[in-house]
């Protein structure tokens, strides 16, 4: 990371410094590598530490850096690529699915999801909780809402909850014929439970992807997946479908 003259640039010093550091991250640093401390960086670029902190904070917001207590500032891993196109795909839990199954409970879904699933307002459904992890870091948490009607043969599984039950629910889904799906993406704020799983502070920006899976002319399951906003990049493919595409090199959004 070389020095640069910041005095004559028209843009804010911290913003220009962010650009310089960002370019160095692409060429000079590996994922997980620790950056020099703030004092050394500030001296190298001839800026106040407050200016440096602003630049580092912006890079952290963009997902380029991670600041870890007791470790320092490290280069963040590449963004996780997740296809959110509307083309028919596979059921959750199919071969090659990268999500980790965590738990399963019986619970009444939120009213909006009960209407989507066409279940009674007080009817409990199977709620499967899963995590998506990359480079050892949780990047998304998902809740799958599965009505009993979608997995009628599940009664043969004695375990009422837990990961074993969750895998049983996912296994039974593979018996259905997937007729299609639709997805919606919106920006949100991390709730306390999601923030804890994703190692973020409550209120941190997240992307919420809601998916409906159709079979036999109805919504068989609904998925609500919460992604860390600093780990995803939304792009539009040639087909017009919306997708989150994996980047081989990390760039600011």
What would the principal axes of the Cα set say about the shape? elongated
- Helical residues, percent: 10-25%
Q: Major sheet, described briefly?
A: 6 strands, antiparallel
Secondary structure category: alpha+beta
Work out the helix count: 6
Radius of gyration: 22 Å
Low-confidence stretches: 238-253
Assembly of the depicted chains: single chain
What's the β-strand tally? Answer: 10
- Which strand order does the major sheet show? 3-4-5-8-7-6
Helices and strands, in order, run as: HHHEEEHEEHEHEEEE
Kindly, what is the distance between the CA atoms of the first and last residues, rounded to a whole number of angstroms?
Answer: 21 Å
What portion of residues belong to β-strands?
25-35%
- Rounded average pLDDT: 81
Structure in words:
By secondary structure, this protein is an alpha+beta fold. The protein is 24% helix and 29% strand. The protein is built from six helices and ten strands; from the N terminus they run αααβββαββαβαββββ. Strands 3-4-5-8-7-6 form a six-stranded antiparallel β-sheet. Strands 1-2 form a two-stranded antiparallel sheet. A two-stranded antiparallel ribbon has the order 9-10. A hairpin with a 2-residue loop joins strand 4 and strand 5. Helix 1 packs across helix 3 and helix 2 packs across helix 3. The longest helix is centred in the first third of the chain and has 16 residues. It is elongated and about 65 Å long. It starts with 12 loop residues before the first helix and ends in a 9-residue tail after the last strand.
